[in-house]
Amino acid sequence: MDASAVSVEERLFSLVLALLASEQGLGKAEILSTVQGYRQRYVLGGNNASLERQFERDKDDIRELGIPLETLDSPERPGDTQAARYRIPKALYELPADITFSSEEITLLGLAAAVWREGSLSEDSRRAITKLRSLGIDTDDAVIGYAPRLRVREAAFTPLTQALDRHQRVRFLYLKPGQKKPLLRTVEPRALVVHEGRWHLTAFDQRARAPRTFLLSRIVGAVEVVAGAPFEVPGPGQAENSLAELERVWQGNVATLRVLAGSDAELRLAKRPGSTTTRTGEADMWEYAVHFTDLDIFADELSGFGPEVLVLSPAPLRQAVRHRLIQVRELHAGAGA
Asked: Where does the record place the WCX domain (predicted)?
């Protein structure tokens, strides 16, 4: 296996298991040549300096988890790290007897770790996952399909998180649907929240002189910090207020759809929160009332179902879906010409 394919948490987990399994401890060469995540890069008799530095960082990470990693000096060569041995005493590592987890708590711990597996929070999450797994805590396979999908893939997330923590103004190019060119926005970040599985930035837009909400997926290019003194945050509860506003928009937007029974569209739309259904006069059609937050995102989703969905209302959503379907038809007609 390529070393790059071994995740950080897998390497740390393998190291913890190896050090737990050896009462006498393991030497550095033994660790680097045998433990998953190191052995793939180990060169017998060669230069392993970078790998040794990685091992030193991993030791610090493991100790930050509260795991008692011990260093045993060689009696013949005290102070020589090449001759030292490393171990984790089981008696000091195991959970106290009075601490137990129910199956529900174990499931929630595992899901919480899975949520923060990527993006700028990945280091904390990897440590959490390593700690949970090395303690023998694992999630129930039956709930794997219900793991929250909060993957931080947008490049804007990390710089926005840092700016939010430091109260720094930022600027970025933002492309709204229908615009030919992105516009430069300068904002004071207030909160980063997830709504309907997508990251949103709530910020005070200096050009509009008012609060605005931005989808991270629509930020184009790099997020730049604006020089100057940190701004003052209005007060606590910014994330809660942002989510409440997004919820208000979601509650106010309701689409009426006619959906083909037994189709992929019905399967997916029926699972959306708040959706309701009624029978129509046609045996193979159902009528759905579905909430949505962003018209363009929802139009993209509905147009992907093709003839399985007919939008009855609202008119702007119906028009947006129709426009997308016409574009697809014209694109295919041009390709066949």
From this structure: 257-325
